[in-house]
């Protein structure tokens, strides 16, 4: 159902909505454009100095436990990983370090699969400029000491619950699916630029209703519910993040989102269950 069809049924109030959101050709604003183009969104909260462990804990409890994403400008500036700026440097220091995952395609689809023959960092770096692949691997052992825990995580309560430390490397142009994680996430940028888009977990019921069917208005699929669905896990698998079809997935036009742009040295807190998408923003 298109925005126009809905506008005809509801009077008055919808008139203003239509003027604001329907483009000249009658298609909803942002139709067939990149994810987030239907509205401007708003920037997430920024911290210019880091919280204490207690302040961070309290931040995590806000909004009934939903909390909210925060951009921590410059929080990684003192980490040795800020020197990971050239392939030459990485090859010389860590070329022989074991890696655990390289996937096909710059655009994550969860159907590309693992690239064979990727044993050490050198295997990846020698191919990634000329092939559409990206690395998402546990941080190789030798590289781990270059990445520090942010000061507010350096105490028992947090350290007891650490799950995994991953490293993403791409040559540019890569982007993720829209999804959520069941863990809190701290994401630091050492080189390049990345844009994240966030949606509040309050949308869960709407977003995930009738998974894997045309009745879902957002493109949510749950591969674990249906063997015919490609990929793994639950995510917006019927949504093309480069060209959002707002006629077949009309729910998005009314979704409010926030966003953050990470530069080298910035870290981000992504609370668990917040829907998000990451995309290269280097251009
Ligand atoms: C990949 O391309 C970048 C950008 O042109 C270059 O700086 C880098 O050295 C290349 N890496 C390899 C391993 O050739």
UniProtKB/TrEMBL annotation:
**Record protein name field:** JmjC domain-containing protein
Q: What keywords were assigned to this record?
A: Signal
Q: What is the lineage of its organism?
A: Eukaryota, Sar, Alveolata, Dinophyceae, Prorocentrales
UniProt domain JmjC: residue ranges? 128-283
InterPro entries membership? Cupin_8, JmjC_dom, RmlC-like_jellyroll
Q: Where is the signal peptide?
A: 1-26
Q: Does the keyword Chaperone apply?
A: no
Keyword Secreted found: no
Q: Which domain of life is it from?
A: Eukaryota
A Pfam match is Cupin_8
Recorded hits in Gene3D superfamilies, A to Z, give: Jelly Rolls
